Amino acid sequence: MSGPNTNYDPVEVAALDPVTVEAARVAALEAAASATTLDELKAARTTHQGDRSALAQANREIGALPPSAKAAAGKLVGGARGAVAAAYARRQRELEDERDARILAEESLDLTMPSGRPGLGARHPLSLVSERIEDIFIAMGWEIADGPEVESEWLTFDALNLGPDHPARQMQDTFFVAPAESSGLVLRTHTSPVQIRSMLSRTPPIAILCPGKVFRTDDLDATHSPVFHQFEGLVVDRGISMAHLKGSLDAFVQRLFGGHIATRLRPSYFPFTEPSAEIDCQCWVCYGQDISCRVCGGFGWIELGGCGMVNRRVLTAAGIDAEVYTGFAFGLGIERALMLRHNVNDMRDITEGDVRFSRQFGMEI
Amino acid sequence: MRVPVEWLRELVEIAPGVRGRDIAADLVRVGLEEEGIHGGQLRGPLVVGRVLSQVPEPQKNGKTIHWCHVDVGANGQQLTHGIPQEIVCGANNFDAGDWVVCILPGGVLPGNFEISARKTYGHMSNGMICSERELGLGDDHDGIIVLTRYFADRPDILESLEPGMDAIALLGLGREVVEVNVTPDRGYCFSMRGIAREYALATNVDFRDPADIEVPVATGPGFPVRLVDERPIDGRVGCDRYVARTVRDVDASRPSPPWMQRYLTEVGMRPISLAVDVTNYVMMLLGQPLHAFDLDLLPGDIEVRRAAPGEKLTTLDDVERTLAADDLLITGGGEILAIAGVMGGASSEVGPATRNVLIEAAHFDPITVARSSRRHRLATEASKRFERGVDPQIAPVAAELAARLLAEFGGGTIDSTATDVGEPQARSAFDFDVTHPTRLIGLEYPREEVVGTLRRLGCEVTESAGSPIVSVLAPTWRPDLTDGPELVEEVARVRGYDQIPSVVPRAEGRGLTHAQRVRRVVATMLANQGLVEVESYPFIGNGLFDVLGYAADDARRDTVTLANPLQDEAPLMRTSLLDTLLETLRRNVSRGMRDVAVYELGLVTRGSVPKGGAPILPVSSRPDPESEARLYAAVPPQPRHVAFAAAGLAQGSGPWGSSRGFDASDAVTWAREVGEILGIQLQVAAATMAPWHPGRCAAISLPDGRVVGWAGELHPKVLGALKLPARTVAGELDLDLLTEASLAPISAVKLSTFPLATTDVALTVDETVPVGEVEAALRRGAGPLLESLSLFDLFRGEQVGAGKKSLAFHLAVRAPDRTLTTDEVSAIRDQAVAAAARDCGATQR
Ligand SMILES: [Zn+2]
């Protein structure tokens, strides 16, 4: 390296020869352009930009020039170095982008491949339909009431005006707890004992839905099950009329089956209600317009269950003053709602616990 | 009840164009549900034909068909082809010259079987020659109807036969029968009289009461009848009226008239003999069951009395029945003749040789008849009516009508004397508020409408000026009308239920209860963890508790037994959900779902029948508090549980790696998560509990120590006995306890923003010391500043020593109010280690 020299002609200094500088610049740019990997670029950078590179040497020589020559030499060398630095930076970015793109391409996965991870399970559709029904009544301001399944005979029958000689109390309909003559216990044949318990424990106004498991001595077949689910409704207050019963059923049916589905009441008889009625609802598939309709069999109406104004004897046995309060009650089957709403044709699919059945439905039906 | 439309037309005005379908719709409106419409499904042309020729043609299949030419008059092919009808017929019970019935192309047979000309056995067959069964006339399918024989007793018809005559009218095939369901309160509708009255109400037409016939005043006492009842049921005597009439010199071998047989067939009864047909006809018409005795075979005076236990009677169905003290009997001269209102014996039955007939028309107590009918499993036409209540005033009318019919069709004379003993319970009038229908139905019913409807029903209504209260005396055929709401129903149904407005009642509930929300959140959580919710029947076998390995005194053996289980081998109610859930798991595995995890929420029974059973209380008022408490206490506790079970692989092998089978830790994890989702830190501790594997069972407890259930792998013996896959895991928790434990709202802890300090400890403990205990000791020792604790390493080996294991934990600590110093962190760590050393014998490595 030369020291500062006041009488120094840059042209005479080899390193600062413009031709030499230009050659170094061109060589550096070529090396950058021809580097195909980041490693090659790094090597080229060491050669052409490093401390021992021609341009670095030229740069150092500038210091030795007389002040009069420094500016021109500085401009020459600085320009070359600037161009080289920019070219290397640009090439660096290009090669990095190429590398990144390559890595991303290499990292691509087949996302159609099964994960092997255990999936979701499923709720039982009966539970889901039941909860949906509960929510409909909750939204109308009712509450949900529960009770035991092994239940006292008095709460299941007597209090509901089903006296000792009523046919429903025979062995061919009801599971009796042994000894049948004296246990006073049965498997509840309806959720009505929950209504009685509720009336005994609450004071009007009462508006409750009693969903739950009930039992009848039917053999399991495509349409019957000895264990099935019901929901019964009960409203007791001053001035409750059959119009309120009709209104509640209309609201429920429209919320569950949709649209402007109408209900129809037909006179009937139940010991626990007076007046009593059967509930039909309009077929939500054909609205009675298709005589070959699979859902309603062409009748246009679908039988849902029974209802009526709570018999005064029932109110009285349950401690409600029948002179002051009136009430209505209804009972419908959840299996039936599920079968109708979701085209389930065989009761056994619901009762046998085959996981394939539950898995067909999501968690909100 | 089957209602022949032609019969109904005799009692009410029915417009000519009205069909069975219309009648059914009108009856439905007043509460008689349609069960079906019979007959009338046949569509012509169905015509009378005369066989001109019939040529037997044996077929390759061994059958012989007949190639027939039949003269069907103007209806036939001759109009178009100029030849008689050509028909292939398979039957061989007829000859040329016979009169037959042909259905021609375009006709429809019952069952919607449409007839068209078709090629068969090498001929074009233009219709069918019909059998009784094809026309829905009977079961005879042996051959076609030959009218000469079919109307053998009707020379008038035979003389009038002409080819091409309409056979629908001739055979009465256009007649329809409407079948309706009669609810138990409307016993009077088990008669044409009752149905006609309802139809008249529904359509507002006039009703002709068939009971409106004059019964002559008896000239003296008839056949001696005594009514005795030493054991009335609920104060009601078994027989409160017994009417008997005598018809002498009857030819009982004569047939009943065809119109009567026709009606009986249409209502579903078989014509048998004149005496039986007459009694059945009158019963169907008026609803009063009757019995006809052969007077000459009656051993003596009739006495109606209760049975003595052990007495026997062989009823008409040839079954010897041992009678019970509640049974009411008809006896003659001391000999038992019948179970009153249910079924008679054979001894004094009317036969073809009978000359003198005694007709019984009695009124029996509904409860007495219902009990006998059920006790002897004998549901007869008579018992069906008595159980539901028969009009006590109809007995003399029915007996009179039956006597007249017997005399008319059997020859003979009616005695002018008559028996009529007993005292039917007097009806009593009751007050009725005419505004009651409006209030109970929510629809305006004017006073005139209310009173008018009641009168049309047959009620006697006494009004007093200016008062809404009227006095109502219900008609004798409506024993069901005893109070206001029943009359409200009548008023409402006669106007029509379709008029009732729709009004949504106001209610202000508090939403789901905590317990109800708990059920939903637990059920949803388990489904999200990959388990499938199922339902299983709660019935189990006697041997299950032994199979599960329960000790003799295990509380889970305490349950109720069903007196009439569906299957004799499963008479008990489950005491755990796993009792039945495991069977559901097995069923899934057997159906090919070998990797399966299921769960169930439901009630289990934990207790048996209390001494003396649950009380049957009066219903006339609310139970007194003591009785009510007794009632609830008698119902066995039925806590709500959640249970889960899994078998096979939790994760299968594949490109992602190797498989992992369900193991005990899955069951324990699900149990922990049930707690976690409810905000409860459940405690896990090693336990020995059937039916779990003794070394792979964890007791799951609330923070206060109460055990809520168990989880782990099932005992290999249990798995073997229940045919479940090896290593099946399961758990069951008491959801009621968890509900209670999660009731109190959780208080939030203020979050510290000071830095977290971490430190590790490595401890050596005996192999037998559970990790959970070491963790618990570390937590106790570390105190409140410990934020989290996690096991990150476990190893065994020479460096640790035989029978020992080494556990390494991360501890993370943080103070609410400051940055912890290194010394403070070390001190916490030392306290944690000290506690582990003291409580678990741990040494620091
Ligand atoms: Zn439809």
From TrEMBL, chain A:
Q: Which reaction does it catalyse?
A: tRNA(Phe) + L-phenylalanine + ATP = L-phenylalanyl-tRNA(Phe) + AMP + diphosphate + H(+)
Q: What molecular function terms (GO) are annotated for this protein?
A: ATP binding; magnesium ion binding; phenylalanine-tRNA ligase activity; tRNA binding
Matches recorded under PROSITE patterns: AA_TRNA_LIGASE_II
Q: Which UniProt keywords apply?
A: Aminoacyl-tRNA synthetase, ATP-binding, Cytoplasm, Ligase, Magnesium, Metal-binding, Nucleotide-binding, Protein biosynthesis
**Does the keyword section mention Nucleotide-binding?**
yes
Q: Where is the Aminoacyl-transfer RNA synthetases class-II family profile domain?
A: 133-340
- Please list the cofactors this protein needs: Mg(2+)
Please tell me where Mg(2+) binds in this chain: E274
GO BP annotations of the record are: phenylalanyl-tRNA aminoacylation
Any idea of its EC number?
A: 6.1.1.20
| Record's subunit section | Tetramer of two alpha and two beta subunits.
The family database entries (PANTHER family) matched by this protein are listed as: PHENYLALANINE--TRNA LIGASE, MITOCHONDRIAL, PHENYLALANYL-TRNA SYNTHETASE
Q: Where in the cell is it found?
A: Cytoplasm
Chief place where the protein resides = cytoplasm
Question: Matching HAMAP family, A to Z?
Answer: Phe_tRNA_synth_alpha1
Family, per entry: Belongs to the class-II aminoacyl-tRNA synthetase family. Phe-tRNA synthetase alpha subunit type 1 subfamily.
- Any coiled-coil ranges, and where? none
Q: Which GO terms describe its cellular component?
A: cytoplasm
User: What is the name of this protein?
Assistant: Phenylalanine--tRNA ligase alpha subunit
Give the cofactor note text.
Binds 2 magnesium ions per tetramer.
TrEMBL record, chain B:
| Enzyme Commission numbers on file | 6.1.1.20
- List of residues binding Mg(2+): D480, E489, E490
Task: List GO BP terms, alphabetically.
Answer: phenylalanyl-tRNA aminoacylation
CC annotations in GO: phenylalanine-tRNA ligase complex
Q: Which UniProt keywords apply?
A: Aminoacyl-tRNA synthetase, ATP-binding, Cytoplasm, Ligase, Magnesium, Metal-binding, Nucleotide-binding, Protein biosynthesis, RNA-binding, tRNA-binding
Task: List each copy of the TRNA-binding domain by range.
Answer: 40-158
Q: Which GO terms describe its molecular function?
A: ATP binding; magnesium ion binding; phenylalanine-tRNA ligase activity; tRNA binding
The family database entries (SUPFAM superfamilies) matched by this protein are listed as: Anticodon-binding domain of PheRS, Class II aaRS and biotin synthetases, Nucleic acid-binding proteins, PheT/TilS domain, Putative DNA-binding domain
Q: What SMART domains does the record point to?
A: B3_4, B5, FDX-ACB
Instruction: Please share the entry's free-text remark on the cofactor.
Output: Binds 2 magnesium ions per tetramer.
Q: Which Pfam families match?
A: B3_4, B5, FDX-ACB, tRNA_bind, tRNA_synthFbeta
Output the superkingdom of the source species: Bacteria
Carries keyword Ribonucleoprotein? no
Which InterPro entries would you find in this protein's record?
aa-tRNA-synth_II/BPL/LPL (IPR045864), B3/B4_tRNA-bd (IPR005146), DNA-bd_dom_put_sf (IPR009061), Fdx_antiC-bd (IPR005121), Fdx_antiC-bd_sf (IPR036690), NA-bd_OB-fold (IPR012340), Phe-tRNA-ligase_IIc_bsu (IPR045060), Phe-tRNA-ligase_IIc_bsu_bact (IPR004532)
* Reaction catalyzed: tRNA(Phe) + L-phenylalanine + ATP = L-phenylalanyl-tRNA(Phe) + AMP + diphosphate + H(+)
Q: Which cofactor does it need?
A: Mg(2+)
Q: Where in the cell is it found?
A: Cytoplasm
In what residue span(s) does the FDX-ACB domain sit? 752-845
Looking at the record, the residues that make up the B5 domain are: 425-502
Q: Note the subunit structure.
A: Tetramer of two alpha and two beta subunits.
Task: Report the sequence similarity comment from the record.
Answer: Belongs to the phenylalanyl-tRNA synthetase beta subunit family. Type 1 subfamily.
UniProt xrefs under NCBIfam families:
pheT_bact
Protein name from the UniProt record = Phenylalanine--tRNA ligase beta subunit
Q: Which organism is it from?
A: Nostocoides jenkinsii Ben 74
Task: Tell me the organism's taxonomic lineage.
Answer: Bacteria, Bacillati, Actinomycetota, Actinomycetes, Micrococcales
